[in-house]
Design a protein that fits this description.
The chain is of the alpha/beta class and 195 residues long. Helix content is 32%, strand content 22%. Bound molecules: guanosine-5'-diphosphate.
């Protein structure tokens, strides 16, 4: 898809605030700082659509981007902040679980992990949740430009192993800086959205 008019739509903190347009939704999940804002910007060819490095600690906001009145990109709240209270963790859990478990418009989930690191316990928990939805999904290994080519295969294999990624699920090395992976990911999104 060639994106022409991507824009911020709304921020949701409660179930009754979800948009009613009914467009298919593609959700991005991952720990804070993994590159969720950057992937939204690189997929839409915009520098500042999503705020890079946005307020850490905002653990309960779901941010909607309207992609040409055809679909919504949905930035789920990040996890893995060092200084988050138990009650904040609980509200993160209830909003993410509520969204993943009940949102009919959700058609695909993009799970993001940093290609440089072994997926954390939080990543594993998030991924188990996400697999539990039974929805189509892909795993994005972000920040590809930060490792040498010779390490890519080993890093991807470790991600597959630690997260127990099913055979038929793609793990795509991705860079928001040099746009590696953008076309492959758009192809997958296009297929889902046109079904
Ligand atoms: P978010 O918290 O998941 O939304 O992460 P951001 O998109 O705000 O990115 C966190 C930091 O990682 C920022 O400093 C970004 O510039 C950087 N970053 C994100 N994606 C990439 C990438 O593909 N390559 C490199 N080198 N840096 C990236």
């Amino acid at each position: 898809m060639i994106v022409r008019d991507p824009r911020y739509e709304t921020t949701v903190v409660r179930l009754d605030q979800y948009p009613i347009a009914g467009y298919p939704e593609i959700a991005f999940a991952g720990r804070s700082n993994v590159g969720k804002s950057s992937i939204v910007n690189s997929l839409t060819n915009r520098k500042n659509l999503a705020k890079i490095g946005a307020t850490p600690g905002k653990t309960t906001e779901i941010i909607y981007f309207n992609i040409d009145d055809k679909l919504f990109f949905v930035d789920l709240p990040g996890y893995g902040f060092a200084s988050v209270s138990k009650s904040q963790q609980r509200s993160w859990g209830s909003i993410v679980e509520g969204y993943l478990g009940t949102r009919n418009e959700l058609k695909m989930i993009i799970m993001m992990v940093d290609i440089r690191h072994k997926p954390s316990n939080d990543d594993q928990m998030m991924y188990e949740w996400l697999k539990g939805t039974g929805l189509p999904h892909v795993v994005i290994a972000s920040k590809l430009d930060k490792i040498p080519r010779s390490q890519i295969k080993a890093r991807v294999d470790e991600i597959k192993k630690v997260l127990a990624v099913p055979e038929d699920v793609k793990v795509i090395p991705y860079s928001a800086i040099n746009k590696a992976g953008v076309e492959e990911l758009w192809q997958i999104i296009d297929e889902i959205v046109t079904i």
